[in-house]
Amino acid sequence: MGRLDISRRHLLGVAAATGALSLARGVAPVLAQALERTPGEILGPFYPVLRPADPGADLTTLAGRPGRAAGQLIHVMGRVLSVEGQPVRNARVELWQANTHGRYSHPSDTNPAPLDPNFNGFAVQTTDTEGRYRFKTIKPGAYPATPTWMRPPHLHFEVTGRVNRVITQMYFPGESLNDKDLLLQNIRANRQGVIAKVLPPTRDLEPESLIVVWDVVLDKG
User: Fold this and answer.
1) Which of 117, 127, 161, 199 is the 20 to 30 A CA-CA neighbour of 83?
2) What pLDDT sits at residue 56?
3) Which of 3, 4, 161 lies closest to 91 in space, CA to CA?
4) Which one of the listed residues 101, 103, 143, 171 is annotated catalytic?
5) Which residue among 79, 132, 154, 171 is the active-site one?
């Protein structure tokens, strides 16, 4: 599958800025204790029905369309690891999400928010030899799950390693809706494991973009 280029120097710079030491080669083996597994969540009703055969790692453009997806540009990156801190190579990482208005490209989504003609909200890739993945996308909007429940911005992930598979959601820090979200608050163990770190861009990225760093930890990889 397609993958955005991501240099070791770039990842080490991100790791230093966030404290996300698992991004750096050679750090995982010296961890004194096991990592906590990433909590699982429900698949949700909007897993894509129609998925491009090779969507690559850039969700901001669509083949044959000249425009770019509306919204805050983000680069989501991290590693897939085992609880021992070992990288999981060739893990399949699927991402799907709502657009900047909070609507999914899915026939079951009845949200009246507009669709984005330049965004279908799905991508997939495999991790490299160090377990790294990276997607270029936009920050999704919040949306109403029920008349009394607004879901905070989040990304859906399905990660399949050699042995384990997890379906989960990644959340953004500092969102006011996080503290009220029924799914997020229902996570009892390692709730912080589904909340990413957000940074300003480095010099080689778009100045208006953000870096979102999030590792996925599987049991045995």
Assistant:
1) 199
2) 77
3) 161
4) 143
5) 154
Which of 79, 134, 151, 171 is the catalytic position? Answer: 151
Respond yes or no: is residue 154 known to be catalytic.
Answer: yes
pLDDT over 90 percentage in the chain: 78
In a domain, 208, yes or no: yes
- Domain with 34, as residue range(s), is 8-218
Q: Averaged over 191-204, what is the pLDDT?
A: 96
Q: Confirm whether 10 is a catalytic residue.
A: no
- The CATH number of the domain holding residue 138 is 2.60.130.10
**How many domains are there within the chain?**
1
Catalytic residue among 104, 132, 134, 171: 104
Selected catalytic residue, list 103, 133, 156, 171: 156
> Which of 119, 149, 145 is closest to 58 using CA atoms?
119
Q: Tell me, yes or no, if 143 is annotated catalytic.
A: yes
The torsion angles phi and psi of 142, rounded to 5 degrees, stand at -70, 160
Cβ-Cβ contacts under 8 Å for 9 (sequence gap 6 or more):
none
104 catalytic? Reply is: yes
Residue 138 lies in a domain: yes
The residue-averaged pLDDT of 103-113 equals 96
